[in-house]
Design goal:
The protein contains nine helices and 20 strands. The chain has helices at 2-23, 96-107, 124-136, 225-239, 268-273, 289-294, 322-334, 339-343, 354-361; strands spanning 32-34, 40-42, 45-47, 52-54, 58-60, 74-75, 88-92, 111-115, 140-142, 146-152, 155-160, 165-168, 170-173, 177-179, 212-214, 252-255, 260-265, 278-284, 300-306, 312-319. With 373 residues, the chain is an alpha/beta fold.
C-alpha cells in the first residue's frame, strides 16, 4: 500500500499538477456549485467563464442490497487502502474491477468467492476460458446476483437470488460506478442527467446547457482513462469554438487479470445487433507457437468480420499479453483492413501478436495452421 500511495502521489504531481503549472492553469481548491445557467461558485466565490467543462469523474456504485448497511463492506477504493489481509473475501460483481481485485487478493492468500456473471460483455469463448483460469487458482465463481447480506458469527453471509450462499470476513462491492455530481446543483444550471445520474452530452460533449460541456466518467462514456482524456480534449476544443467528435472506432479495452482479457472494436453480438451479416474465427492459444513455447496455452483469439466485405470489425484475445496486442488490432480496424489483408500482413514469428495474423488466415479455410505460413 505504501508503494501504491507513493506511485499515485508521484503520478498526480508529475502528470497533473506539474502539467497545469507548466501551462499556467489556475487551480482553485474547493467545492463547485452552479447557482444558475451562467454562474459557478467555488466555496461561495463566483467563477465566471464563457464556457465550463464538468469533469468530476465517478465513484464506486453501492447497490441497494438488503443488509449491506449492516456489514463493513469494501469498495474498489477502500480495498486498496487495507493494511491487513482478510482471511476470506466475497466479491459482488464480475466486471473489470471485481475480477482484477478478486485475483489480486487471491494471489495474496485470501480465500475469494465471486458472485456475478464473469466478464458478461466479453466474447463467451474468452470469458469461459477466464473462468477456468480463476477456478484453477482456487477462486470460487458463482454466476448469480446477490439478493441479501446478513451477519453470521462475525462474518458476512451473502445469499443469491437462487439461494446459494457465500461467507467471507469482508465483502467487496464491485458493481460499477456512479457519477460524482452530488454538490454541483446541475439542475440549477439546466444540465440534464440520465436515469442513472450521468450527465447527458451530445456528440460534441455539450450538455443541455450550451455553455457547459462534460467529459469523462461523469458522462455515460466507456470508463477508461484514455476515453476520458480524448473526450476532455475534444470538449475543451469545442468549448473554444471547434466542432469535433470522439471517434470510438476500434476502441481497445484491457482487463488486467492473468491472463489478460482484451478487445478492440465490437463483439459478435454487437455486430449482429448492428445489422451485420457476421463471420467469425477463433484460434486457441494451443495453436500459437509463442504460447506453446511459453508452456501456457490457456486462452485464444477471436476475429469478428463483416461476412459481405471481409472487413475486420473486432479482435478479442485472452492471453498473458493480450493488452499489448490491441494497438495492432485498433490500427487494423481503424484502417478498415479486410481479413485477407490482415492475413497477408507481416507478423514477427514467435510473438503473441502473430496470433492475429494466424486467426485471420482461418477465414481462408479452417485447416491446421503452420507455424508462420
Amino acid at each position: 500500500m505504501q508503494q501504491k500511495d507513493e506511485l499515485v502521489g508521484m503520478l498526480r504531481q508529475t502528470k497533473y499538477a506539474d502539467i497545469a503549472a507548466a501551462y499556467g492553469f489556475d487551480i482553485i481548491p474547493g467545492t463547485a456549485t452552479f447557482t444558475n445557467a451562467e454562474t459557478l461558485l467555488v466555496d461561495g466565490r463566483p467563477v465566471r467563464a464563457r464556457s465550463y467543462l464538468v469533469a468530476t469523474g465517478a465513484e464506486p456504485h453501492v447497490p441497494a442490497i438488503p443488509g449491506l448497511d449492516q456489514v463493513d463492506y469494501l469498495t474498489s477504493t477502500t480495498a486498496m487502502e487495507l493494511t491487513e489481509l482478510p482471511a476470506s473475501l466475497v466479491v459482488i460483481g464480475g466486471g473489470f474491477v471485481g475480477l482484477e481485485q478478486a485475483q489480486l487478493f487471491a494471489r495474496l492468500g485470501v480465500e475469494v468467492t465471486i458472485i456475478g456473471r464473469l466478464a458478461p460483455h466479453a466474447e463467451p469463448e474468452l470469458s469461459s476460458e477466464l473462468r477456468k483460469a480463476f477456478l484453477t487458482e482456487g477462486i470460487t465463481v458463482t454466476g448469480d446476483r446477490a439478493a441479501a447480506i446478513t451477519n453470521h458469527d462475525g462474518l458476512a453471509r451473502v445469499v443469491t437470488r437462487t439461494g446459494k450462499e457465500a461467507t467471507g470476513e469482508r465483502v467487496l462491492i464491485a458493481t460499477g460506478r456512479t457519477p460524482r455530481t452530488q454538490r454541483l446543483e446541475l439542475g440549477a444550471a439546466g444540465i440534464a442527467t440520465d436515469e442513472r445520474g450521468f450527465v447527458v452530452v451530445d456528440e460534441e460533449q455539450r450538455t443541455t446547457n450550451p455553455a457547459v460541456f462534460a467529459a469523462g466518467d461523469v458522462t455515460d462514456a466507456p470508463g477508461y482513462v484514455y476515453v476520458a482524456a480524448m473526450a476532455g480534449k475534444i470538449a475543451a476544443r469545442n468549448a473554444l469554438g471547434h466542432h469535433e467528435q470522439v471517434n470510438y472506432t476500434g476502441l481497445p479495452t484491457v482487463l488486467f487479470t492473468s491472463p489478460q482479457l482484451a478487445s478492440a472494436g465490437i463483439t459478435e453480438a454487437e455486430a449482429i445487433a448492428a445489422g451485420y451479416r457476421c463471420a467469425c474465427r477463433y484460434l486457441r492459444l494451443a495453436d500459437v507457437p509463442r504460447a506453446i513455447t511459453n508452456r501456457n496455452t490457456r486462452g485464444g483469439l477471436k476475429i469478428v468480420a463483416d461476412a459481405d466485405t471481409g472487413r475486420v470489425l473486432g479482435i478479442h484475445a485472452l492471453a498473458d499479453t493480450a493488452g499489448e496486442m490491441m494497438l495492432a488490432a485498433t490500427y487494423a480496424i481503424k484502417a478498415e483492413f479486410t481479413v485477407t489483408q490482415l492475413a497477408d500482413t507481416w507478423a514477427p514469428y514467435l510473438t503473441m501478436a502473430e496470433s492475429i495474423r494466424l486467426t485471420a488466415n482461418l477465414f481462408r479455410n479452417e485447416l491446421p495452421t503452420s507455424c508462420c505460413a
